[in-house]
Amino acid sequence: MKTLRCLTFAALLATSLITSLHADDNKTANDLVTPEMTDETPAAGRRVRQVATEYEGTDVYHALYLPVDWKPGRKYSVIVEYTGNKFPACGSTGEVKDANLGYGISGGERFIWVSMPYIDEGKKQNAVTWWGDRQATVDYCKTNLPRICEQFGGDPDSVFICGFSRGAIGCSYIGLADDEIAALWKGMFAHDHFDGQRTWGYPESDRESALKRLARLKGRPVLACGSANDFLKDHLGLATFTFLPVPVATIFDIPEGKVIHPHTDLWMHRDSEYRQRARDWLNQNK
Fold first, then answer.
1. What string of DSSP letters covers 66-132?
2. Which domain holds residue 237?
3. What is the number of domains present in the chain?
4. What digits encode the pLDDT tens for the residues 113-140?
5. Strand order of the sheet with strand 221-225?
6. Is residue 3 situated within a structural domain?
7. Do residues 82 and 174 lie in contact, with contact meaning Cβ atoms separated by under 8 Å?
C-alpha cells in the first residue's frame, strides 16, 4: 500500500526541514516538548514503554504517560492516540514513541495519555504504515485500555480517542471498527484527514462504509481539526461536530519560500488561540 500522502499541502513536500519545534529557528521558550519514552516504571510525569502480556517476547508495545498531577487512587480522564504513517516528508515516523497530539492538547496535566500501536501482520512488531493486522490492532486496544484504566486510575467513562493523519482516519477505521470498541469512547478528535474523506487502497475505506462506522458514535462529540474533513458537514446527524481549521503556517510563522511542512501533529505544542479552543472543547466534553 502507498504511504498516506499529505493532500492539502502536496506542493510543500520535502525531505529535509519540517515544521518541528526542535528546529532552533522555529522554537520558542514556551513550546511544549513531548517527554521521551523510557523503559522505567510508570510514575507521575513519566512516559514509559509497556509490553502487553499477550505480546511478551515481541517488539509490540504501547506508550503510557501519567500526568504530572497523577496520584494512586484518583480518577483521570484518558486520551488514546494513534500515530500517522511513516512519512519523512512531513516528519512523521509512524512510531508509537513519537506521538505528540495527546500531549499537546493535555499539556501533560490531568489526563492519562496512551499511544496505542497498530499491530504488524506478523504480530511481532508495530506497523509504521497503515493498519497491519487490523483485527489484532482493534483487539489490542479492547484488551489493554481497560487494563490501563484499572491499574492507573483511568476513568472508563471519560476516554477520548485521537490521531493525526493516518491516526485521524484510524479514530474511526480502528476506533469504530465494531460496537465493542466504539463503546469505549466519550468523544474523538482528529487532525488532518478523516475516515471516509476518500477511498484508499485498503478494504472498506469507501465513504459508505466509513459513515456506517461513524454512526457507532451515536451522536457523541467530535473535534475535526485541520483539513480534509469538510464532507462531514453533510452528515451532521451522526455526531456532535466541532470544526477547527488550524492555520499551521501562521502558528509557526512559516516564511515564504522556506520549505517547512505544515502537516504536523506538533501544532498543539505552541500556544495559540487554536490550541486553546481545542483544549476548551476537551475540557467541556470530558
1. B-TT--TT--EEEEEEEPPPPBGGGTB---GGG--HHHHHHTTSSEEEEEPPPBPTTSSBB-SSS-S
2. 10-285
3. 1
4. 999 999 999 999 999 999 999 999 999 9
5. 47-50, 62-65, 111-115, 76-82, 154-164, 187-191, 221-225, 240-244
6. no
7. yes
Q: What is the CATH number of the domain that holds 265?
A: 3.40.50.1820
pLDDT at 258: 45
Exposure string for 41-77, b = 16+ CB within 10 A, e = fewer: ebeeebbbebebeebeebebbbbbbbbeebeeeeebb
Question: In angstroms, what CA-CA distances link 207 with 157, 172, 216, 234, 243?
Answer: 29, 12, 15, 12, 19
- Inter-residue contact 122 to 58 (CB < 8 Å): no
pTM higher than 0.85: yes
Beta bridge partners of 190: 163, 224
